[in-house]
Amino acid sequence: MSVSASTPIKLVNAVYASLPERVNLGRTRLGRPLTLAEKILINHLADPEGQEMERGVSYADFNPDRVAMQDATAQMALLQFMTAGLPEAAVPSTVHCDHLIQAKVGASIDLGVAVDTNREVYDFLRSVSAKYGIGFWGPGSGIIHQVVLENYAFPGGMMIGTDSHTPNAGGLGMVAIGVGGADAVDVMTGFPWNVRWPKVIGIRLTGSLSGWSSPKDVILEVARQLTVEGGTGAIVEYHGPGADSISATGKATICNMGAEIGATTSVFAYDSNMADYLRSTGRADIADAADAVASDLRPDDGASYDQLIEINLSDLRPMINGPHSPDRAHRTGAEVGEAATENGWPLDVSAALIGSCTNSSYEDLTRAASIARQAAANGLTCKVDLLITPGSEQTRATIERDGILADLEAVGATVLANACGPCIGQWSRPEEVTSVPNTIVNSFNRNFPKRNDGSPNTFSFVTSPDTVMAIALSGRLDFDPITDTIIAPDGTEVSLDAPVGEVLPADGYDPGEDTFTAPPADPSGVSVEVAPTSDRLQLLEPFTAWDGNDYDGLPVLMKAQGKCTTDHISAAGPWLKYRGHLENISGNLFAGAVNAFDDAVGVGFDTTDGNRRTYPEIARRYHEADIQWVAVGDRNYGEGSSREHAAMEPRFRNGVAVIARSFARIHETNLKKQGMLPLTFADPDSYDVIGEEDRLAIVNLPPVPGEKVRCVGTRPDGSTYEFETTHTFSPEQVEWFIAGSALNIVRAKVAAES
Question: Which residues, 6+ apart, have CB-to-CB distance to 514 below 8 Å?
């Protein structure tokens, strides 16, 4: 298997060769027209003739076309793959170095510091990639999802990626799903990837965007309607005449943020805008191949959806969502201003940021630049710090060549490295700013507390690049770019015209610096070493198999109140450096969780001596004393990033189960993959019954698909109570639990076949 800097046409042709026949088979078996999502899924089934395909019920085995990993998650994924016993990855796979670059000064300095600081990790990822036939995109290449969109995504393909915003590739008609590293290992070892057959939510778009409205406003409106849980267990499929009016990169923005509504993924049908983007990025052969099967790259007439939402793009107005949740929606201007006044959010903005994997395309940056040129012509500059993150080296080189970079810098922008940076907490800010309540606006995707700069005092609002630029020029959260004016240095009132962008560069893309390294044809001379003394990397030991007994006397290590995202369970920011060292990164376990018993953050009750300690310290003490324990969660437990560390850390520290009112999809699967029990309260009110010093028993194990699991609680006074839980284990996933992890199953299969 060869790995290159783009998807080879041979792979695409192989996918399209089976597509018409598989689609017809699906129509016959299901007896109805198909959605686009169903067509792509059926074409990638391991057993298209025998597989059950009941939405929201059946578990199915798929053969994805490729795997993509970012550097923070790739470390643990590749450490797991190394233990599988295979000589190379069985499907095309790539590693992208985008998460470990901290934004502080500017692009060149920040990149140099990152290369020096993370040298051990980069060398590890580079050598593992070379050893096992994996493509390596070095630091400075760009954000994984933009690099994938520019080089690897293709209509009708299927990809999994170890990052929750992998669905970005849906902008090119690809079913691209964010997963944990253990799922990636399954695919890289050549075994089918197992997941519940998703429901399909249809978003019918009519009309067209105009003025200050942008693709970002589409997904912010969808988030408003569906909330952060509304897409759970479903693929969101955009269709209708309005869908075809949106550019490929605009579609990618919408699909990217589908992760914020819990969706399995999001996808658009193939159209001329996708073909234009493919040709502009040097993939005319793929566009030609897609044209030949175009009817099968769109939903059938009469396709049915589990839920249908209609949005008239012509009615959309600029939105700004936040703080603390991407579905907390407001109109720009007076509406968000009134909410800010009511809630005590500062109206003066401390920083404005444009970029991230969600909004850093050529089109995004040219629209922002068109506003900047207006400002400069009227003597205006930004009233707050404006930080710009190009999505990729190709985008950076192109906007520099075309003068867009200069337009942004002319109003005071600082250009950061082609990396995730502030979007994921890799942002060093002055303490005098973060020590007090402050407001930031950005074109990112997530705005959970502490997400961007680690400070609980920062109120983060998500909006379009256009609105970010306007607010940066005004300095006010409640600025309405449609109606409000800005006072120029000469005292005149300046009204900003609506932004005008260029969908694609007229002179084509400038590839910039070549940052891709293909694996060698002969990897026999490549060695992979992990120093036993390293504090960044640690070889893994397999988790132990279930001992066959029910769990009894489990202390409640943590009971979370309200949101408990993967950021609360396993914080990013400074902890990113330990993503390859399971023991060290476990030092952040539940550090951000809010204790349901006293509202304390990251602090709970230690049953070993009755003292109060931080959750990471309690977990370490339980682990050292070989005490198994349970965690309790609220609604949508584990929402946010796909980071499997949030599942591996509790398993490593001797956790055996998480019981919650509901789970986010990726995290629930990650827990199963690591041999833990994600259980859902059959009655959500049972959450309230569990006390801080109670002990829980989980009985009648292993879990049986379709049957409830009974739990018994014992209070300090000896009295007991019972409650039932549900689960989503398939028969195959039950085997993961019995074996101690899904990876243990993979190891056994590889050993048996070798």
Answer: none
One domain, residues 582 and 470? no
* d(C-alpha 526, C-alpha 328), whole Å: 50
Average pLDDT (484-496) is 96
pLDDT tens per residue, range 599-616: 999 999 999 999 999 999
Among candidate residues 418, 322, 366, 314, the one with its CA nearest the CA of residue 106 = 418
Task: Label residue 572 by pLDDT band (50, 70, 90).
Answer: confident
Domain count, the chain: 3
Residue 127 lies in a domain: yes
Q: Which of 182, 186, 147 is nearest to 168 (CA)?
A: 147
Domain co-membership, 716 together with 633:
yes
Does 215 share its domain with 305? Answer: yes
Report the distance separating Cα 222 and Cα 214, nearest Å: 13
**CATH number, domain with residue 745:** 3.20.19.10
Residue 515 within any structural domain of the chain: no
Active site residues: 98-99, 163, 446, 641, 643
Single-letter amino acid, residue 748 = A
Distance (Å) of CA 175 to CA 149, 308, 685, 747: 12, 19, 37, 28
Residue 516 lies in a domain: no
pTM: 0.92
CA 156 and chain centroid, separation: 21
Q: Which residues pair with 568 in a beta bridge?
A: none
**Range(s) of the domain holding residue 24:** 9-314
Contact criterion met (CB below 8 Å) for 647 and 669: no
